[in-house]
Specification:
Layout: E1 4-10, H1 12-15, H2 23-33, E2 37-44, H3 48-60, E3 66-70, H4 81-88, E4 91-92, H5 94-105, E5 118-121, E6 124-129, H6 133-154
Parallel strand pairs: 1-2, 1-3, 3-6
Antiparallel strand pairs: 4-5, 5-6
Helix pairs in contact: 2-6, 3-4, 5-6
């Protein structure tokens, strides 16, 4: 199955061109290495309305199966990606976030400060990842093995049962 991804970076500084977005391109590299496709990318400020609107448009547009966000999941006042995600998802996928946090805590005690969410809007999976390239990649590695099956289930694919 060829999955189609959107990768959304939330960063005030990167959106203003003050620093390069390193996480988005790093995620693109790992996604394409799996044989999947990245069809949408954007860098937006840490702004609830902008993040919410982008997630909604992407999820409803029919171009992607999965949206990965990077950034805005911490404790800083402008870290609002989980709140924006919570406003657009229909159902949570808490197990994905629990697995990422549990694995991350083995090497990074600050992982427990992540407020990331994951959930579904229609037949699109949205997963919040940390803003640091290293942490974003480590978290994505945790959920990579289940992404194809998750999309099969969301799309009510009759072959999904074969992969249990």
């Amino acid at each position: 199955m060829t999955l189609r991804f959107g990768i959304l970076t939330s960063s005030d500084r990167s959106s203003r061109g003050e620093r390069p977005d390193l996480s988005g391109p790093a995620l693109t590299k790992i996604v394409t290495a799996q044989g999947w496709t990245v069809v949408l990318t954007a860098v937006v400020p840490d702004d609830l309305k902008v993040i919410r609107e982008t997630l909604s448009i992407w999820a409803d547009g029919g171009e992607v199966d999965i949206i990965l966000t990077t950034g805005g999941t911490g404790f800083a006042p402008r870290d609002v990606t989980p709140e924006a995600t919570g406003l657009v998802i229909d159902r949570q996928a808490a197990g994905l976030v629990e697995a990422m946090r549990q694995e991350s805590r083995k090497t990074a005690p600050h992982a427990m400060l992540s407020r990331a969410l994951a959930g579904m809007r229609g037949k699109v999976l949205i997963i919040n990842l940390p803003g640091s390239p290293k942490a974003a990649l480590e978290n994505l590695q945790v959920v990579l093995p289940v992404l194809e099956h998750a999309v099969e289930l969301m799309k009510d694919d009759p072959d999904a049962e074969r992969h249990h």
